[in-house]
Amino acid sequence: MMPSDHSVVTESTRVYAGVRTRELSVDGAGPTVLLLHGYCDSADTWRGVLTRLAAAGRRAIAVDLPGFGLADSRSTGPLTPQFDAFAEALVDAQGPVVLVGNSLGAATALHAASRDRTGRIRALVTLDEPLLAHHLVARLVRRSEFRRFFDVAGALPVPDRMVRRAVALGVSRFVYGRGHRADPAFIATALRSVPNMAAAAARGRDAVRYAREHVSGHGNLTVSCPVLVVHGGKDRIIPVAAGRDLHAQLPGSAFVVLPTAGHCPQLDEPDNVTQLLLGVLERAGNHEQAG
C-alpha cells in the first residue's frame, strides 16, 4: 500500500508547453528527480516513491502527462511530439534533473535524454520501457489502427459499473506483479481515467496510434548521460526481453531486473525503486564532481 503522504507531498498546478497539469512534489536536495508515468496512468503512481525520496532528503516531482490524470487534454495530431514537447519544457523548467520514466514515461524520457545538449539531464532511469516489445500483441498493433474495432467498441451499451469492474480487475492482474496486492487508492485513479466504454475505446485507440508512431522502436538512440534500465521480472504487458534489448542499444547502461515486480515496479516495490534512484543520484553527483 502507498504510505500516507499528506504531510510531505505538495500538490499544485503548473503549465508546461502550454499544457496545464497537476504536479506532485517533495522538497529536498537536488538534482530534482523528475518522474514520468505510463500510459493511462497519472502522477499518483509515484506517491510511494515520492514519500520515500522525501524521507531520504531528496527533491522530486511527478506530473500528469498531457491527456492523463488531471492534465489538459491532448490536441489532435500525432501523440509523440506532444509528449516530447511537454517533457522538454519540464526539464528546462526543473533542471538539472535525474529523469525517470515508467512505460510511456520511459519512452518519453528516452527521447528527452537523446536530444539533451545542455547537460540538464544528469542521469536517466527507465522502468519497463514498452517500444521494444515484439510479442504477438505488439506486432498486431503495429500493423493496423483498428479504427473500426474501436468505433464499434466505444458505442457498445456496456454499463459503466461493468467497465469499472473490468478496469479494476485488469489493473490488479496486469499492472501489478503476481503476489502484489493492488492498492485501492491507486485503483481509484485508474477508474478516473477509464470511467466508461467510450473512454476505454478512446484510450485503446490512442495506445495503438502511439505504437504505430514507433513501428521501428527508437531507431538509433544516442544518450550521453548515465542510464539505468530497470524491468519488472513479472511484467505481463512488456516482456523482460524488451528491457534487455534496450540495455543492449545503450552502451554503458546498467540493467536491473526486479524479480517479483510487474509493469509498474514503483507500485510493487517502491522501497527497491527508491534505493535504485538514490544510487543513481549518488553516482550522478560523483560524475559531476569528477567532471
How would you describe the overall organization of this protein?
The chain is an alpha/beta fold and 291 residues long. It has a domain at 10-134 and 219-290: Alpha/Beta hydrolase fold, catalytic domain (Rossmann fold). The protein is built from 11 helices and 8 strands. The protein has helices at 47-55, 80-94, 104-115, 136-141, 147-155, 160-175, 184-193, 197-212, 240-249, 265-268, 270-290, and strands spanning 10-16, 19-26, 29-36, 58-63, 97-102, 121-127, 227-232, 254-258. Strands 1-2-4-3-5-6-7-8 form an 8-stranded mixed beta sheet, with helices on both faces. The longest helix is centred in the C-terminal third of the chain and has 21 residues, at 270-290. Mean pLDDT is 92; it is low at 287-291.
